[in-house]
Write a structure and sequence with these properties.
two-stranded antiparallel sheet, 2 strands, flat, single chain
């Protein structure tokens, strides 16, 4: 039996399920390839590269949904690493992209996701190790 999920993990699970069941499949299968965009590590990919990136994003959403559903002990560390990647992406994209919002907004966004990474990492005790 999985450990009971804290309220914040239920919110995160809902977001992961939305990404896995709605957002990624929509972007992957319904957004035309000439309009496809995906950002990883602050770099915007277009076309076929964006579709590959969206496939990777879909795997992340599915993995996180599973980890949150089953309260797997690896989830807080995986989430912290992912949030740090998002923080870096916001900082880089805000400065490097013509559509970016500048360094101040990029650093603010990076601070939000770095905080989320720290909170995820500190939640390790809520994801107990199990023998199953």
């Amino acid at each position: 039996m999985s450990a009971p999920r804290p309220w914040w993990a239920n919110v995160a699970l809902a977001a992961a399920l939305a990404g896995a069941c709605l957002f990624s499949p929509y972007d992957l299968f319904f957004v035309p390839i000439d309009r496809a965009e995906e950002v990883w590590f602050g770099i915007t990919f277009h076309g076929q590269a964006a579709k590959v990136g969206e496939g990777a994003h879909w795997i992340v959403w599915i993995t996180f949904a599973y980890g949150l559903w089953r309260m797997r002990p690896w989830l807080p560390i995986a989430a912290a690493v992912y949030f740090l990647q998002v923080a870096l992406a916001h900082a880089i994209w805000s400065v490097a992209s013509p559509r970016g919002h500048g360094i101040a907004i990029g650093l603010l966004q990076a601070a939000v996701f770095t905080t989320a990474a720290a909170l995820a990492f500190r939640a390790r005790s809520q994801f107990p190790r199990r023998l199953d």
